[in-house]
Design brief:
Blueprint lengths: L1 H15 L4 H6 L2 H8 L4 E7 L1 H4 L7 H12 L5 E4 L9 E4 L5 E4 L4 E2 L14 H6 L3 E3 L2 E3 L1 H5 L3 E5 L2 H5 L6 H15 L5 E5 L6 H4 L17 H28 L4 E4 L19 H20 L12 E2 L18 E6 L9 E4 L2 E2 L9 E6 L19 H13 L5 H7 L9 H13 L6
Parallel strand pairs: 1-2, 1-5, 1-8, 8-9, 9-10
Antiparallel strand pairs: 3-4, 6-7, 11-13, 12-15, 13-14
Helix pairs in contact: 1-3, 1-13, 1-15, 5-12, 9-11, 13-15
């Protein structure tokens, strides 16, 4: 993944530079070589029949994911996996007459549970206990296909069978194994599952009759029992992701349940119809682009509403540079990253990540004050700072401690391609003008 990430950074550098001779003069032949070596982002969608595409055999949400990414201008990706990997391009025409090409490769398996048990095969065993060959690479699925991003949605069949005891433990075992198999720069998305329309599929839910009630005898009670199982599982998925995030893991929660309506988005009470799959594809594309671009996600209309709150925390640090000093204060450009909070029913949960740093640095009166994004330390933020940051990221050219702090526009303590992306966005928002 490191080589792909370096290539993406180099590509961002080129996109940020002015068009014309200046850009050609700034870029070296080494940079051009890195860009030419760029590899597409490898995306592995894994799960059960919902990932496979149970309805109509048309590859479910994955075709819409590819389409939405293409519509947003992101085409440098490769869907990978052992299924449907005979081609990189299949044509699909929607009911509205829109025709598009998509990559059908995946790792979705109809009827599979998280781990194998009586009557069910397991996704865990299929991923890690099976040998695959991809080109000249052989190994388990993660080794053979080496994904940069994994989209995991699993658990619906466990729920259908009322195989709920230990369900989160089984999921955690799989999540841990996936994370151990991925590089530090890779990302694992773990999704909730859609609701089950019990009134349509109670014949698949016979295992819940062990509770002493049936759908025929008590439809409301039976429905509530199944719904509670789905709600408990989805809540546990979110909690598991938060737990791994607290441990510093590269993992995100994807709330698929929030975008598939049980009455209008399901074909048979369990599997999404084309409307449901289209909603899933759009949602997945938003999640991926938000991760790749490090931008907050706008709420999906009709499914959730969002409340965005920002909090400014001001800290002051004094550094003495010489015996004859003059103290001056400059307010840094505020870069705030926010997460949308979802309002479901009557409950509003707000999660905010925000930061703003105001630093007081003691220096001579002639020295420009540090500003977030001002990598050249000339008192302004402009294209020259993008060029300077590119040289640091791609060629390893040294920068001072103050310049490093200014380059950390995401304020996460690490200067990388995400800071470069945000710096570009600052300039675009300012109309390309100096700040």
């Amino acid at each position: 993944m490191k080589r792909r990430l370096t290539a993406i950074i180099a590509g961002l550098c080129i996109a940020a530079l002015p068009v014309g001779k200046c850009a050609a003069n700034v870029l070296s032949s080494d940079t051009a070589d890195i860009v030419s070596a760029a590899e597409p982002v490898r995306i592995l969608a894994m799960g059960d029949s919902i990932t496979h595409g149970y309805i109509n055999g048309d590859n479910g949400y994955r075709k819409y994911l590819c389409y939405q990414l293409q519509q947003q201008g992101f085409t440098d990706f490769d869907m990978v996996g052992p299924n449907n990997n005979w081609t990189d391009s299949v044509s699909y025409t929607t009911a509205d007459g829109v025709t598009f090409e998509y990559d059908p490769a995946h790792a979705g398996y109809s009827g599979y549970a998280i781990q194998a048990y009586s009557g069910r095969q397991g996704l865990y065993e299929t991923v890690f206990d099976t040998t695959y060959t991809n080109g000249d690479v052989s190994g388990n699925m993660m080794e053979a296909y080496d994904p940069d991003i994994v989209l995991l949605q699993i658990g619906t069949n466990d729920l259908l069978d009322n195989h709920n005891d230990g369900i989160t433990d089984r999921l955690e075992t799989m999540v841990d194994k996936l994370l151990d198999s991925m590089d530090d720069q890779d990302m694992l998305f773990v999704a909730s599952v859609p609701d089950i329309d019990v009134s349509v599929r109670y014949d698949w839910l016979w295992a819940y009759q062990s509770s002493g009630i049936t759908y025929d005898s008590d439809p409301e009670g039976f429905t509530a029992l199944v719904q509670q199982s789905v709600d408990n599982y989805n809540a546990s998925v979110k909690e598991l992701v938060e737990k791994k995030q607290a441990d510093g893991k590269q993992i995100r929660f994807a709330d698929i349940n929030s975008v598939v309506d049980m009455k209008t988005g399901l074909e048979d009470g369990v599997h999404p119809n084309e409307t449901g799959y289209a909603c899933m594809g759009k949602y997945w594309s938003e999640q991926l682009l938000s991760y790749l671009n490090q931008t907050p996600i706008e709420p999906t209309p009709g499914s959730t509403t969002a409340t965005v709150t920002t909090t400014t925390t001001e800290t002051t640090t004094s550094v003495t540079a010489s015996s004859e000093t003059e103290t001056t204060t400059a307010e840094s450009t505020s870069i705030t990253e926010t997460e949308t909070s979802e309002t479901v029913s009557d409950t509003t949960e707000t999660t905010t990540i925000s930061s703003s740093e105001s630093s007081t640095e003691t220096a001579t009166s002639q020295q420009p004050q540090p500003i977030k994004g001002d990598v050249t330390l000339d008192g302004t933020v402009n294209v020259a700072d993008v060029v300077r940051l590119c040289r640091y990221l791609v060629h390893g050219e040294g920068i001072s401690k103050t310049a490093y702090e200014c380059a950390d526009v995401t304020e996460d303590g690490i200067v990388n391609g995400f800071d470069l992306t945000l710096l570009r966005q600052m300039l675009v928002a300012a109309g390309g003008q100096e700040q």
